[in-house]
Amino acid sequence: MPAGLIALALGGFGIGLTEFVITGLLPEVAADYGVTETTAGWLVTGYALAVIVGALGLTAATTRLPRKPVLIGLLVLFVIGNTLSAVAPVYGVMMLGRVIAALCHGAFFGIGSVVASNMVAKEKRASAVALMFTGLTASNVLGVPFGTLLGQALGWRATFWTIAAIGVVALVGVAVLVPTVRSTDATVPSLRRELGAFRSGQVWLSLGITVLGYGGMFGAFTYIAYTLTSVSGFSSSAVPWLLIVFGVGLFVGNFAGGKLASRSIDGTLLVVLVVLTVVLAVFAAVAASPVLTVIALVLMGAFGFATVPALQTRVMQYADHAPTLASGANIAAFNLGNALGAWIGGLTIAAGLGYTSPIWAGAGITAAAVVLTAVAAGAARRHHARGAVSTGSVATV
Known about the structure:
There is one protein chain. By secondary structure, this protein is mainly α. The longest helix has 40 residues. Helix 2 packs across helix 4.
């Protein structure tokens, strides 16, 4: 295992912590600023939308720059944003800090995925991407629960100070462990070539699957603290420990998803998304039961994150000769899904449908992802079949 993958995972840990820890602290943040839970939820949605801008804009702007210095610069931006969040006196400044931190997110994972896949043999790329995203899952297993505990004990600002410090450690790790690759004229990325990847219909289908497949799970997760306390009957002090349970599911799902995607990307996505749809629907139906809620949390995390290696590898596969911007676009798609899911979940709560309504909405969004995946997989099979027939005809002649 290349040491650089550990460094990328470390960066992913810090960035994942920034993205997800806010969900466990939404009640505290809302109370501190005197805003509603729906308004506080915009700290999740705003972050996700800013990731989209950074994933596309910063990735495109840095296409011809060496990847290692770019990764370091992105982590500097990350530290600045979280420091601003920690000192924010009003809600608007907090949102600004979230936006600044989010700008680095998409470009880091987009560029980092390409760097990770280039460190290993082609047949191990999905596993390498999964290893990089292990930092993201570890942030949920360990970082988010303990970040929530820290925020409840010392105030939510202490959590963001801690995240900023983790960002500094991650920056040093990337600087020391990620190898510097010297590009020749033939291998220096071209923005025109990178944009050319978007002529592929399968690239666009892959992005759509990511939006819906990940958005359904994250929409259900955004307001999970309210579901656990107001529907399942858990105390607020139990939420961090329940997030550990969810995080364990993420960790297992990411690892298993990487292994399965190495064998069949579309097959993995179809099976996992179907099961995730069922899990979300059942979760919404049994959320009043504490025991069944714990089981559902594990399964939601496992099947929700088992999609990630396959989703990221799929778009890189269909943009094989120019993967950097497409990879960044897929990170944007993840966060567009986050924003969509959080927005729809907030609408259902504001409409008075209760704190299980975001989970029902998530099940519907994920079901749409199943349909789109089936369409994309069918189109890919037909394309390959036509290619095989064409090749056979030429051979006969």
